[in-house]
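User: Can you write out an input/output pair for a complex, sequences first and structure second?

Assistant: Here is one pair. Inputs:
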Amino acid sequence: MNFNKVLYLFLMTGCIFAGCQSDSDSETKQKQQEAAEHAFRSTSVEFTDQWAQAAQKDGNSAVYLQIYNGTATADTLVAVHSAVAGEAALHESFQEKGLTGMRPADRLVISPKSMLALQPGGLHIMLMNTKQRLAEGDSIQVVIELARTGKKEVTVPVRLAN
Amino acid sequence: MDFIKSVSLLILCILFMLIVSRCDRPEVIHDLSDKKFTLLNQDSTTINFPSDFKDDYLVVAFIYTYCPDICNITTANMKNISNQLETTSDVQFVEITFDPKRDTPSVLNEYMQTFKLDEQRFTMLTGDSESVNSVLNAMDIEAAISYRDTTASGKISYTMNHTDRIMVMDTQGRVRFEYPGSRVPPEHVIQDLNKIRTSWYEF
């Protein structure tokens, strides 16, 4: 087998794998885009991309999600609850004067047709004094209380940060 | 005569390379080579830090287990660095707590299991408050209680403001690199770690 044939075979193999990978990436991106578009077309309040940090028993966890207010009126995130924790509250991580920390967050207003993002390093729901270990693969229930919409229960998968 | 010239040129080249490599070596940020901090690991075994890790390169992070956001991100970063290193036989990963009061060895043990940290590669350290504060001070790490509350169940809870840091130490217990722990890309740490793993940088 001469060198040109080997090179051709190598290039073809590379193209096939590149194609497979890009197909997989495209599929994931498409699903994410569809989920986002669905949320933005909605005329109600939607919750997406929710997940919770793993935590040891009697420890603390953080819950992240995106809240889309598809209604024509502002709403306010006023409280959070979860049966897996002794207490739950809105918190915010911050960086100030070279240090990082957390502090309670005030009631959060979500304007009409707007998204509120609770994400790592920023706003999050803090679950305190977990009643059990929250392990990767578990699912927990978190109740989001909005001033106008009322209480909504969200199923949140537990995973390890990456 | 030609032979002497060749040898002289070779010696000059070697000297030049040595000088260049010394100019290029990472500076020592904190020198703990003559220090010994007596701490406890997740199995309640006494560990002298950093001397017990002599001959290993260390990637060191600082966390407390009741911090559910930033510190878990830092731990995830440590895992990513560990997983992406091609060879790890001479590298150990250490996490030191800011909160020795609550982060007892058993709590650290459970944290390791919850976050699936490889016990062959990872060590978590705590100890009495004085010892922990000594090592934090030596490495210029700050931590203080920032918000204290009594929960509805009567339990006291608090959060801490703290330095967000990952450090790379050489085999002699000297900090050579430091980064924002929750935000540094793993490949940056790996690149710098591999720089000092070559013998040129060990003096």
